[in-house]
């Protein structure tokens, strides 16, 4: 039951944290639909929390004059997913300066290299899969992405450590919302990952390791803050993992690519030509349709009023990413998989926000979104046009309460075969 106070609609009850765990991605969406409001107040982890959803709310939430990120992420999430003192927790000029460090990597040539690395490692792994009775795509794609991420950032990676590093990076996002043993697994992965990075940073700074100067390992190691000081080694470690971890997390989308191909065979045929526009529309619809990250958090900078509702200073505020991507006022038939909708999409930074919203350079939109698109485009093209496989009987359902959500089987494939470009063999 909802009650109207002097400020905004308010959900009754002492605390609704357990409901977040039960409802997951649909927690805010369910209340939007039930109470017909895009803004309401609830209580999570004992704290007053404002929940927002929709395009107009996203414009508000990503206004850096109204919201700050410092202190928004719970400590337990920092100790698994984000790390402490990273770019996500900065505001103002400090955030802009640190964000430039990431954006400087997103050059045309560096993004082109991502595409080439993706082709290279799909080809390498597909050759290995041909010798196996079956593979689990989610687990294998984490290894592919670990290779890509390390080579692109200049981080050395021995073949013998790929499985371990892929699991380590995977645990940081797969266990971020876990409780009990799962959470401790994620926390351990974060701790060991930072130790791995810090050891390399120290070697780079004292000249015992010499990565190429255009790579993140070198650039981040010698990046200076606004006071002209080198970043603390722990902070550099966190920021390097803020590249590696999200790149490996693309394995979630790759699993859903395969799921979407299986569920939408008529769309698969449109991809046989390898047309970049068709591939782009398909991966964008996967990112819109399937669950990835549920919501983003911030705190109110200072009191303000929006649409007649009072937002009080320091109030925790959650922006509904999944629900905004399924907003019927923006997306016709939002619960249907329709790649062609992106033929006419205008490219707003506020209505399509699977990895956050706002502008790249000055806002908190994920700097790695371009990397995600390039990796997914090459991965989709490989799945459709460069290999064949069978999907045996398995549980491909996915839960909206699991964060991150994944097909339960991880997408098991058998009879994997590479094929020549242009072959029209059926998947």
Question: How would you summarize this macromolecular structure in one to three sentences?
Answer:
With 427 residues, this protein is α+β, with helices and mostly antiparallel strands.
Describe, in plain words, how this protein is organized in 3D.
- The chain has 427 residues and is of the alpha+beta class.
- Helices cover 46% and strands 12% of the residues.
- It has a single domain (2-418), classed as Cytochrome p450.
- The chain contains 15 helices and twelve strands.
- The strands form four sheets. Strands 3-4-10-7-5 form a five-stranded mixed beta sheet. It has a three-stranded antiparallel beta sheet with strand order 6-12-11. It has a two-stranded antiparallel sheet with strand order 1-2.
- Strand 1 (2-4) and strand 2 (9-11) form a beta hairpin.
- The longest helix has 31 residues, at 233-263.
- The protein is globular, with a radius of gyration of 22 Å.
Observed structural traits:
427 residues; alpha+beta; Cytochrome p450; five-stranded mixed sheet; three-stranded antiparallel sheet
Topology diagram in text:
Layout lengths: L1 E3 L4 E3 L5 H7 L3 H9 L3 E6 L2 E6 L2 H7 L5 E2 L6 H8 L9 H12 L4 H22 L4 E3 H17 L8 H13 L6 H25 L10 H6 L11 H31 L1 H6 L5 H14 L5 E6 L3 E3 L2 E3 L4 E5 H4 L44 H17 L1 E4 L21 E7 L9
Parallel strand pairs: 4-10
Antiparallel strand pairs: 1-2, 3-4, 5-7, 6-12, 7-10, 8-9, 11-12
Helix pairs in contact: 4-9, 6-7, 6-15, 7-8, 7-11, 8-9, 8-11, 9-11, 11-15, 13-15
CATH topology: Cytochrome p450
**Span between N and C termini?**
49 Å
Radius of gyration: 22 Å
What is the residue-mean pLDDT, rounded to a whole number? 90
The CATH architecture assignment turns out to be: Orthogonal Bundle
Question: Which structural class matches the secondary elements?
Answer: alpha+beta
Helix coverage percent of residues? 40-55%
Strand content: 5-15%
For the record, what is the CATH homologous superfamily label?
Cytochrome P450
* Strand elements, count: 12
- Write down the domain tally: 1
Order of strands, main sheet, comes to 3-4-10-7-5
The CATH class is identified as Mainly Alpha
Describe the largest sheet: 5 strands, mixed
- Note the overall shape: globular
- Report the uncertain regions: 360-364, 422-427
Please tally the helical runs, counting DSSP H or I stretches of 4 or more residues: 15
């Amino acid at each position: 039951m909802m009650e109207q106070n002097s400020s905004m609609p308010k959900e009754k009850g002492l605390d609704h944290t357990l409901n977040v765990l039960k409802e997951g991605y649909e927690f805010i969406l369910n209340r939007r639909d039930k109470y017909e409001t895009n803004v309401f107040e609830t209580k999570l982890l004992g704290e007053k929390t404002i929940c927002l959803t929709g395009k107009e709310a996203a414009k508000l939430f990503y206004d850096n004059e109204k919201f700050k990120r410092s202190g928004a992420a719970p400590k337990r999430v920092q100790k698994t997913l984000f790390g402490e003192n990273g770019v996500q927790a900065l505001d103002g000029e400090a955030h802009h300066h640190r964000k430039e460090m990431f954006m400087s990597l997103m050059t045309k040539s560096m993004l082109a290299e991502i595409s080439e690395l993706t082709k290279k490692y799909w080809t390498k792994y597909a050759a290995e899969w041909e010798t196996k009775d079956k593979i689990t795509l989610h687990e294998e794609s984490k290894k592919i992405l670990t290779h890509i991420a390390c080579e692109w950032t200049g981080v050395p990676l021995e073949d013998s450590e790929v499985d371990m590093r892929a699991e380590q990076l995977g645990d940081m996002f797969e266990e971020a919302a876990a409780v009990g043993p799962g959470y401790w697994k994620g926390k351990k992965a974060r701790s060991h990952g930072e130790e791995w990075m810090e050891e390399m940073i120290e070697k780079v700074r004292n000249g015992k390791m010499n990565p190429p100067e255009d790579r993140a390992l070198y650039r981040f190691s010698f990046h200076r803050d606004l006071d002209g000081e080198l970043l603390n080694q722990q902070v550099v470690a966190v920021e390097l993992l803020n590249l590696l971890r999200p790149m490996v997390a693309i394995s979630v989308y790759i699993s859903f690519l395969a799921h979407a191909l299986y569920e939408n065979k008529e769309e698969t045929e449109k991809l046989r030509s390898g047309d970049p526009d068709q591939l782009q529309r398909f991966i964008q619809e996967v990112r819109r349709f399937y669950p990835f990250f549920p919501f983003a958090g911030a705190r109110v900078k200072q009191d303000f009023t929006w649409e007649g509702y009072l937002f009080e200073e320091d109030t925790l505020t959650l922006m509904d990413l999944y629900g905004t991507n399924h907003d019927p006022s923006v997306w016709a038939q939002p619960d249907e998989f329709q790649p062609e909708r992106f033929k006419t999409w205008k490219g707003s930074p506020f209505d399509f926000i699977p990895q956050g919203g706002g502008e790249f350079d000055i806002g908190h939109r994920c700097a790695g979104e371009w990397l995600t698109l390039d990796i997914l485009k090459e991965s989709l093209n490989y799945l459709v046009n460069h290999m064949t496989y069978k999907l045996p009987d398995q549980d491909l359902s996915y839960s909206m309460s699991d964060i991150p959500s994944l097909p339960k089987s991880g997408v098991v494939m058998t009879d994997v075969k590479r094929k020549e470009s242009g072959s029209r063999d059926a998947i």
